[in-house]
Amino acid sequence: MKVEFYRHSIEEADIERVGAVLRSIFLTTGEVVTKFENKLAAYLGVDNVVCVSSCTTALHLSLLAWGISHGDEVITTPMTFCATSNAIIQAGAVPVFVDVEEETGNINTELIKDAITDRTKAILPVHLYGQMCDMKKIRSIADRHNLIVIEDSAHCIEGIYDGIRPSVLSDAACFSFYATKNLTSGEGGAIATNDSSKAEFLRKLSLHGIDRSAAERYTKKYQHWDMDILGYKANMSNIQAALLIGQIDRIDSLRESREDICQYYQRRFDEAGIRYPKVHEGSVSARHLFTIWVDEGKRDNVLFGLQDRDIGVAVNYRAVHTLKFYREYTKGQKMDLRIAEMIGNSTISIPMYPKLTDVEMRYVADSVIEVVKG
Ligand SMILES: *Cc1c(COP(=O)(O)O)cnc(C)c1O
Q1: Alpha-carbon torsion, ordered 202, 188, 10, 13, to 10 deg
Q2: Sign (positive/negative) of CA torsion 293, 365, 311, 129?
Q3: Tens place of pLDDT for every residue, the chain, 374 residues?
Q4: Mutation pick for ligand 1 pocket among 61, 63, 107, 176 (CB with most ligand atoms within 8 Å)
Q5: Are 73 and 117 in contact (CB under 8 A)?
């Protein structure tokens, strides 16, 4: 048996919608994108959603839009994909890594205040694997020190913690529609914010800095347009949005299918004494990834053992500051990131997605237990 690490949940109806866009005249950013933005905004309960080309770009543009620039420090987590801290550097700022909680792998809010200096401008938490950080706590720290909060919500559209969804308490939340994310258009991203003037600015920033979109230029009589800021090219196309529109209607039932698989894994791994990150009582995890934590010395053997059984695996993540570029970048800094390092050396992600069959799910759990014990 071969079990893929991930299979998307795109259906014929989604493909039909893409076909309809392709048969129409207008392929780039237009009313299909607007329709998806409105649906995602309604789902989150936020005033504005601006779709862009990726979550990395969403983070980059948000940092710029909220005025983060050269010399500023942005507090973030090392237990994430490198895109998070890359975006901070690309915006001209400096990522300051704070260690994570042992139980969830999310940024340890108790350690944030010690990392604040007079150069700190923002906090950029990541809702790892779909479990939201404690946004009430993060917002209150930010308010006390007059900081911006931008969420890397690449793993978490569906999460709720203490009644709070992504984008509700932050200045902006950034989402990913990359090939393996919970909603996917192959590539894509979005920014959600209650600040409508920033949303308008972000639209402009994502389209060269010009003051009229292609849709406006197409649907209305020609008018000269102007460019008053140096923008980027980061808009989403109608083709991508067409793939996302049906998925957002199914988002909660897709999450529930993943929840069922996670509950099964948790039961099996509890019995076998295999550890995995905790989901806070009473919270809803977006259930983006299911990872197990094995002894640091055993991790690579388990990883290869599962691959030998034709089970797709991934490592999410080796701590960012241990990657070559960041080893150089942080040289000479004294950082105590031992929990992130420990998780990075222990973690293995296993197949968990709605299309995973019961037979595959049992095979994965049996194999994990045999390989870990063996
Ligand atoms: C996938 C991911 C990103 C980057 O998303 P893209 O849409 O590929 O740019 C950023 N942060 C985290 C935590 C991710 O998992």
Answers
A1: 50
A2: negative
A3: 999 999 999 999 999 999 999 999 999 999 999 999 999 999 999 999 999 999 999 999 999 999 999 999 999 999 999 999 999 999 999 999 999 999 999 999 999 999 999 999 999 999 999 999 999 999 999 999 999 999 999 999 999 999 999 999 999 999 999 999 999 999 999 999 999 999 999 999 999 999 877 777 777 788 888 999 999 999 999 999 999 999 999 999 999 999 999 999 999 999 999 999 999 999 999 999 999 999 999 999 999 999 999 999 999 999 999 999 999 999 999 999 999 999 999 999 999 999 999 999 999 999 999 999 98
A4: 176
A5: yes
Which atom of ligand 1 lies at the shortest distance from residue 59's CA?
Answer: 10
Rg (CA), the chain: 21
Q: Whose CA is nearest to atom 5 of ligand 1?
A: 55
